[in-house]
Automatic annotation (TrEMBL):
It is found in: Cell inner membrane. This is Phosphonate ABC transporter ATP-binding protein. Residues 4-252 form the ABC transporter domain. It comes from Marichromatium bheemlicum. It holds the Pfam family ABC_tran. The keyword Ribonucleoprotein does not apply. It is a peripheral membrane protein.
């Protein structure tokens, strides 16, 4: 079964086409890089995968995640919440609650769509607390569990966000530019963490990256968007200089 299936997806914002008929599939257990220059439509495509954005109407327009419809013909599926609960999001701006502990931030993943104000101390079960510590162990931050989230570095906060998605028991993780604001060492640790949860937990990961180097290092396949169209879809090893030059302009540098 495919983890994600997208067919004939079109989206315009105030008349301007941003996605121009995207059809792609992602296998379960894959770690896929979604690349392309700024403004090519990567984030917009990611938001369609969890139904945060609805496509334009189209007879063949469809998004399925884990075999369930998220949206079809530009309308949200009626059981979209159940599907969304299995999709974890990781963003460039980690979205942690600064004044809460690292562990509580992870526990919030267990709340699903319950409002955050219900996360009072003592609200979580011992079993949930143990699971949160296990998730922190997996991302290499167990010893930081009791610290305030705000005291951690950017890269550590991003790994807390990944642990939160683990706590949510997400089967698919959509990471949109997770390393865009991080230094090289933190970027490496975040990418290794995504790779570890992909390999050890079998979680399907889609990661948008604007540095092709990281895609090469951590993903086997890439899908590249260019002006809202799929310009490349294949093994990373097939991304040659000509393709990259078309994607990013002739001045593209593979090393920073
Ligand atoms: P990327 O993530 O690849 O940088 P985006 O998906 O964020 O690209 O954006 C693709 C294009 O769609 C851009 O031109 C952007 O300005 C436009 N766009 C994205 N979201 C909206 C929106 N909500 N309203 C209007 N235009 C948008
Ligand atoms: Mg983006």
């Amino acid at each position: 079964m495919s983890a994600i299936k997208v067919n004939a997806l079109q989206k315009s914002f105030t008349g301007a086409p941003v996605l121009k008929g995207i059809s792609v599939e992602v296998e379960q257990g894959e770690m896929l890089a979604l690349i392309g220059s700024s403004g090519s439509g990567k984030s917009t495509l990611m938001r369609h995968l969890s139904g945060l954005t609805l496509a334009d109407r189209g007879p063949a327009s469809l998004v399925e995640v884990l075999g369930r419809k998220v949206q079809q013909h530009g309308r949200a599926a009626s059981d979209i919440r159940r599907t969304r609960a299995r999709i974890g999001h990781v963003f460039q701006q980690f979205n942690l609650i600064n004044r809460l502990s690292v562990q509580t931030n992870v526990l919030i993943g267990a709340l699903g769509r319950v409002p955050v104000w219900r996360s009072l101390p003592g609200w979580f079960t011992d079993a949930e607390r143990r699971l949160a510590l296990e998730a922190l162990e997996l991302v290499g931050l167990r010893e930081h569990a009791m610290k305030r989230a705000s005291t951690l570095s950017g890269g550590q906060q991003q790994r807390v966000a990944i642990a939160r998605a683990l706590m949510q028991q997400a089967e698919v993780i959509l990471a949109d530019e997770p390393i865009a604001s991080l230094d090289p060492e933190s970027s490496r640790l975040v990418m290794e963490t995504l790779q570890r949860i992909n390999r050890e937990r079998g979680i399907t990961v889609i990661v948008t990256l604007h540095q092709v180097d990281y895609a090469r290092q951590y993903c086997r396949r890439a899908i590249a968007l260019r002006d809202g169209e799929v310009f490349f879809n294949g093994p990373i090893s097939a991304l040659d200089d000509t393709t990259l030059a078309t994607l990013y302009g002739t001045a593209h540098e593979t090393a920073e």
